[in-house]
Amino acid sequence: MAQYTRVSGSVGLITLQNPPVNALSAAVRQGIVDTVKRALGDPKVKSVVICGQNGIFCGGADIKEFGTNMSGPPLVPMIHAIEAANKPVVAAIEGSALGGGLELALGCHYRIAHSKARLGLPEVSLGLLPAAGGTQRLPRLIGVPAALDLITTGRHVTAAEALQLGVVDRVAEHSTVDAAVKFALSVAAKSLDARRISTYPCPRPSDFDALFEGAMQKVRQSARGAIAPVACVQAVRAAATRPYLQGMEREKELMATLFTSGQARALQYCFFAQRAVSKWNMPNGARWDTSKPRPVHKAAVIGLGTMGRGIAVALAQTGMSVVAVETQEKQLMEAKQAVSGMLERGAKRRGLTPAALHKISYSHDIQAVADVDLVIEAVFEDMALKKKVFQQLSAVCKPGTFLCTNTSALDVDHLASQTRNPELVVGMHFFAPAHVMKLLEVVYGPQSSPQAVATAMQLGKKMGKVSVAVGNCRGFVGNRMLKPYIEQAFFLLEEGATPELVDRALEEFGFPMGVFRMSDLSGLDVGWRVRKGDGLVESGSASGQPTRLREGRRYSPLGDLLCEQGRFGQKTGRGWYQYDKPGSRVARSDPWFHSFLEEYRARHGLVARRIDHQEVLERCLYVLINEGFRILEDGIAAGPEDIDIIYVFGYGWPRHRGGPMFYAGMVGLATVLERLEHYRQAHPDVPYLQPCSLLRRLVASGSPPVHRWREVIKKLHSQL
Ligand SMILES: CCCCCCC/C=C/C(=O)SCCNC(=O)CCNC(=O)[C@H](O)C(C)(C)COP(=O)(O)OP(=O)(O)OC[C@H]1O[C@@H](n2cnc3c(N)ncnc32)[C@H](O)[C@@H]1OP(=O)(O)O
C-alpha cells in the first residue's frame, strides 16, 4: 500500500507501507501508481516526496512474490512514469534503499538520504540483476566503473559514499522527510530537463574494452559458475553501448534468463534460510521467541591457540570486556601480540581506531574469569584436558556464568556433566579464522537451558555471525557430514583417481577448494589424531586389524600413511600436494605422492580404473547429503535450512547451489536415492552409502519440495 497526504500546502507526500521493509509487493506498486497519478493530477500540488514508513525507504522487490503468479503493475513503466512526471519527485531515503527500492529512487528527480541510510543493488546476491532500469540508469548517473562495482558485488554503501559517488544529491542528519519536503518546495518551479537520468548519455570510459574484459574476468573468477554476475556485466555493457531503450530491452532479456534459473531459486532460498535459522527451536519445545537471552557484558576465552585468538578478537570487536586466559607464559605473550595485530588491522580496514585493544585483559590464571558472564573454552581438542578445564570453571566462575566449549566434535554433554550446572553449558563451535568466518554452530545438549541457547545465539549475532542451533552428536552437523565425504575421496584415490582430479571436480562444482587442498590447508594431523583416538590407525598383526578394514567396514589408511611420513599439509610443505616451502599456499602436483599411490595400489592388489568428474561428485556429495538426511532423522538439525546454512557459511558450499539439502531437491531425491543404491551395491562394505530411511520416505511420498520436508520429518518423529 502507499498512503497519500498533502503537506506544507503544495507537496504531495507518498508513504510506502508494507512492513517490515516496505517491499514492492503488487499492492505497494498499485499504491504508488495510484498516488503518483493523484499527486500529478492535483493542481495544488507542485512537487512530490516519496518515503517509506517506519524509517525504512524500501527493501526492493518483494522476494516472496517471485515464483508466484505476479500480478499488479510492473516496476519498469511505474518508475518510468515517475521520471517522466512534470512535477519534481524527491526520494526521501531513510534506513535502506535496496534493489528495486533504489531503482525507484533513481527514477525520482532528486534523492536525499539520511546519514545512517544504506543503499545498494543487491539483486546479484539473489541470482538476479537490477531489472527495473538499475543497470541502465546507474552507469549514466555515476559512470561505468563505479556502477559495475555496485551492481556486480551487490554491496551496500553508506549515505556518505552514495553522496561521494553521486547516487544521492544530499545527506540529511535529522528528519529526512522534513528535509525532502523543504527541498521539494524549493525546486517546485525548476526545469526537470536535466534531472531525468535515462536521458543522460552514458559516459564511455577510454579503456572501455579493457574495463569490461577485466570486470568479466573478475566475476568469472570470484563467482565460480554463478551466472548472475556475468549477466550484470553484460547489462552494464549494454548501457555503455546502446541507447537507453535498447539497453532496457537487453536488461529485460538478461533478467528473463536469470529469473527462472535454478541459481536464482537457490540464492533466494539461501536468503530466507539464513533468516529462518535465527528462529531456532529445540526438540523439547524451547523456541527463539519464548527464550530470553541474558546480557553478556564481560566474557572470557580460555586457551589462546589459533582458535582462541580469533574468538577473543570477535568478542572484543563487539565492544564488550574480554578476559583472555592462557596458562603457558610464552604462548600468552605471543597471543597478546597476535591478537593486538589482528585488532589493529581490523580497525584499519574499517577506518577506525582500535578501541577493542583496550577491552582485552590477559592472564595466565584461570581465577581471572571469576566475574565474567560467559566463558568460551578453546583449549587443545583433548577430552581429558577439556574436562579438567570445565571442572575448574565450574568452581571458579560466579553463579550463573554460561560455560561454552569451542570443541569441533567432542561430546558437549560429557563436558556439561563435569560442572555443577549442566544447564549453563552449550557448544559454540567457531570456524577458522574465528574472527572472519561467519558460521557459528551453537550446540545444545538435553540439559542445556533455553536461556543458555538464546544467549549463545544472541552473542553470535552480536559478533556478526550466522548462528545455527543444533543438537549434540559426534561432529555436530558440519563435521559429521564431512566425514563420509572425505572417506569417499580417499576411496576414490584407491580406485584410480588423483587428488588433482577429485579437487578439480569439486572446484568446478563451485567449492573454493577441493577436499585434498582443504585437507592440506587445515592439516592432515587433525584427522589423524581423531582417528588415533578412535583406535582406527593401528593395523597389522599387533592390533589384529587388517589394513583396509575396520570392524567389517572399508577403511583407507592413506591419510595415516602420509602423516607417518610427517606430511601434515601446507605447514610441513608436503601433504597430498607439495609446496615450495612450509607455510606456502600454492599446491603443486607431487610426483612422490603419485608413485606412492601406485605402489600402495599394487601392494593391495587394487587396479586403477578411469574415474570421471560425475562419479566424484555423486560419491562425495550424495554420501554427504545422505548423512544430512540422517541428521534430520535424528533431530540434530531442526530442518534442511539449518544444514544448508551451515554448509554455505562454514564449508564453502557454493551459495548459488543453495546448500546440500536444497541441491538434493534440485537434482531430484529419486536420483540421489538411485545413485546411492547403485554405489552401495558396488561397495557393500561402506555403510555410509546405505540410503537413509528419511530419504526413502521422502521419495515414497513424492519427493516434496524442501520447504515441506519438516512435515515429513515431524510425522516420522511422531511415529518413533
Ligand atoms: C521480472 C519481475 C521482477 C522485477 C524485479 C526488478 C528488479 C528488482 C529486484 C529486487 O529488488 S530483488 C530484492 C532486492 N533487495 C534485497 O535484496 C534486500 C533484501 N533485504 C535485506 O537485505 C534486509 O532484509 C534489509 C532490508 C537490509 C533489512 O535487514 P534487517 O536485518 O533489518 O531485517 P531482515 O531480518 O533481513 O528482514 C526482515 C524481514 O523482512 C523480509 N524481507 C526483507 N527484504 C525483503 C524483500 N525484498 N522482499 C520480501 N521480504 C523481505 C525478511 O525475509 C524478514 O522476514 P521474516 O524473517 O521476518 O519473515
TrEMBL record:
* Protein's GO biological process: fatty acid beta-oxidation
Domain of life according to the entry:
Eukaryota
Q: Which SUPFAM superfamilies match?
A: 6-phosphogluconate dehydrogenase C-terminal domain-like, ClpP/crotonase, NAD(P)-binding Rossmann-fold domains
**InterPro entries the record matches:** 3-OHacyl-CoA_DH_CS, 3-OHacyl-CoA_DH_NAD-bd, 3HC_DH_C, 6-PGluconate_DH-like_C_sf, ClpP/crotonase-like_dom_sf, Enoyl-CoA_hyd/isom_CS, Enoyl-CoA_hydra/iso, NAD(P)-bd_dom_sf
MF (Gene Ontology): (3S)-3-hydroxyacyl-CoA dehydrogenase (NAD+) activity; delta(3)-delta(2)-enoyl-CoA isomerase activity; enoyl-CoA hydratase activity; NAD+ binding
Enumerate the catalysed reactions.
Answer: (3E,5Z)-tetradecadienoyl-CoA = (2E,5Z)-tetradecadienoyl-CoA; (2E)-hexadecenedioyl-CoA + H2O = (3S)-hydroxyhexadecanedioyl-CoA; a 4-saturated-(3S)-3-hydroxyacyl-CoA = a (3E)-enoyl-CoA + H2O; a (3S)-3-hydroxyacyl-CoA + NAD(+) = a 3-oxoacyl-CoA + NADH + H(+)
Q: Which UniProt keywords apply?
A: Fatty acid metabolism, Isomerase, Lipid metabolism, Lyase, Multifunctional enzyme, NAD, Oxidoreductase, Peroxisome
Q: Provide the 3-hydroxyacyl-CoA dehydrogenase C-terminal domain boundaries.
A: 475-579, 616-703
Query: Where do the 3-hydroxyacyl-CoA dehydrogenase NAD binding domain residues begin and end?
Result: 298-472
Q: Where in the cell is it found?
A: Peroxisome
Major localisation: other
Xref: PANTHER family: 3-HYDROXYACYL-COA DEHYROGENASE (PTHR23309), PEROXISOMAL BIFUNCTIONAL ENZYME (PTHR23309:SF49)
Q: What is this protein called?
A: Peroxisomal bifunctional enzyme
